[in-house]
Amino acid sequence: KAMALVMECLNNIGISHGKLGNHAESVRSFQRGIQLADGLSYRQISIDIRRNLAEAYIGEEMFEEALRVLLNGLVHAVQLWDENTATGLREQIIAITVGLYERTTLIATIGQQFDTALAVAELARARNARQWISLETVLQDERLPASDKRAAQAAIKNLLAVEVEADVRQLAGQMPGKEARRLLQRRTAARDALEAMLPQRDGAAAAFATDRHIHQTANSAIIETADPGTAILSLFSMPDHVSWILLHNDGDQVVTTGDLIEWPRREQEAAAARWRKAQQDALTGRGDLDAALSAFVAAFDETLLTPLASAVRSAGAKRLCVI
């Protein structure tokens, strides 16, 4: 507890220096806090301080440094999630991680690091997608006997069922600690079984490892689906922006572009509130629902669909997949 208090103090000192405009001192305090938290495996505090360090870098428009810190924070958040079964703690981890996903995607898009922005958005949408893609890739190895492949597929199905049950029940707050530990033991046993079935260097153990370079490896499966003439549009919503990333195959290579669409939260909420009121008025015969819907769609179209349509049109794609 004493060391945790020291880390919190360093974090607060860094925040205070930042508010006073002492950028170098702010960064130094955050870095000392992170070093201490990492050394003593206080992951949750480490993630919190990393988020503040990233904000300090963003304030100085040092976006490369901010992105590096945020990506490291995401790795720690994924590891912290995997290591803990307590529902309350997992809810805290989710609250922290959502902010990291949003900020990382925002900074990556601003810095035109579209591959990274896409990878982080996909990690937010499907946390274990890379793991399952990696396992499926291992099963495509022609050297793997058919009987072993069938056994591995059954084991993967069992592992997926355990992980989905654990995540859903914990998020719903429907699982006591004893049950959580039992499911965690089942997950460990299922992973051990798969590692024994797929012992090669790029096998199950590699798929289960938390990749410290998740932003460099998560896009391969998406890119492989981009056949010539196909465009893939990824949308990721944040409080005041929508990040869009467009991949398209021009016949020679996969081209990635993207940008931010500014849509302040207050404007989103105002448009939604007007639409809800129009529905209520229509139910009592005091309003024109069709007119209200047209106004709502017009605002949505002007802010979001028009710039997206322009981007897709410029790619010259014949098919479009929206994520």
Characteristics of this structure?
single chain; 323 residues; alpha+beta; four-stranded mixed beta sheet; 4 strands
Care to give the gist of this entry?
The chain is of the alpha+beta class. It is 71% helix and 9% strand. The chain contains 14 helices and four strands.
Query: Beta fraction of the residues?
Result: 5-15%
Averaged pLDDT, please? 80
Q: List the total number of helices.
A: 14
Largest sheet: 4 strands, mixed
Q: What helical percentage do the residues reach?
A: over 70%
Alpha carbon gyration radius: 23 Å
Strand arrangement within the widest β-sheet reads: 3-2-1-4
What is the rounded distance between the termini? 44 Å
Question: What string, H for helix and E for strand, traces the elements in order?
Answer: HHHHHHHHHHHHEEEHHE
Derived structural class: alpha+beta
Task: Report the count of strand segments.
Answer: 4
Question: Can you tell me the overall shape?
Answer: globular
pLDDT < 50 runs, ≥5 residues: 211-218
Give a description of the structure.
With 323 residues, the protein is α+β, with helices and mostly antiparallel strands. It contains 14 helices and four strands. It has helices spanning 2-20, 23-39, 43-59, 63-83, 87-110, 114-125, 129-139, 146-171, 177-197, 204-208, 214-217, 220-224, 265-283, 289-315; strands at residues 230-237, 241-249, 254-262, 319-322. A four-stranded mixed sheet has the order 3-2-1-4, with helices on both faces. A hairpin with a 4-residue loop joins strand 2 and strand 3. Helix 5 (87-110) packs antiparallel against helix 6 (114-125) and helix 8 runs antiparallel to helix 9 (177-197). The radius of gyration is 23 Å and the shape is globular. The model is unreliable at 211-218 (pLDDT under 50).
